[in-house]
Structure formats: structure tokens, C-alpha cells
Amino acid sequence: MSYNEPPNYGTPPPPAPGGYGAGGYGGGGDHPQGTTILILGILGLVCCGPLGIAAWVMGNKAIGEIDANPGAYTNRGTVNAGRICGMIASILMVVGIVVYGIIFIVALGNS
Q: Are 33 and 62 in contact, with CB atoms under 8 Å apart?
């Protein structure tokens, strides 16, 4: 034992203070439509473009609800991912419709 250290009388050190997340006010839960929005967005990308429109609309509504009450919901990332997948699916669907329309018009013109 050095002269600069306090003597140890056999008492344990005090416990470490709690972290910031250990508060008693309670967090939020998941938005009830978060998983549905994500699934619709993915399905819109993979197989059915109109589901992307539903994911986009529902995602915008859910993001508005999350922004209105930020402490109530914890899955903003899930909702946003589904909304973005829905946007991409909708845009790809519109581009596909335009391309098929152009192909149809060109085919009619050549006959």
C-alpha cells in the first residue's frame, strides 16, 4: 500500500452509476403498422408493384404519427425502410408502364 491511496477497510466500492437508458419514464413501443409497411414495400419491389403504392402511402401516414409523438414509437427505421421500398417499387412500376407503352406504340407503327 502506498501513502497516496486511502486505506482499505474491507468495504466494497460503491456501484457504478446507471446509464442514460435506465430512466424510469418508459420508452415507446413499435408502431403497429411498421412491419406491415416493410412487408408491403418489399413485396412491391419483388412481385407486385401496386403494393409499393400502399407501402408509400401508409409509410407517409405512419411517419407523420411518429413525428407528432416521437417518444411513443421506436421503429421509425422500419417504417422508413418500408416507405422507401414502396417509393422505389412505385417508380419502377411507372417506368415499366411507360416502357411497355413505348414498345406498344413502336410495334403498332411498324406494322
A: yes
Residues 89, 96 contacting (CB under 8 angstroms): no
Q: Give me the sign of the Cα torsion angle 65, 70, 73, 76.
A: positive
Write the burial class of residue 38 (CB in 10 Å: 0-12 exposed, 13-18 middle, 19+ buried). buried
Q: What is the pLDDT of residues 38-85, one digit of tens each?
A: 999 999 999 999 999 999 999 999 999 999 998 899 999 999 999 999
- Find the radius of gyration of the CA atoms of the chain: 27
Query: pTM of the predicted model, to two decimals?
Result: 0.71
Kindly report the three-state secondary structure assignment for every residue of the chain: CCCCCCCCCCCCCCCCCCCHHHCCCCCCECCCCHHHHHHHHHHHHHCCHHHHHHHHHHHHHHHHHHHHCCCCECCHHHHHHHHHHHHHHHHHHHHHHHHHHHHHHHHHHCC
| Domain range summary for the chain, segments of one domain joined by + | 31-109
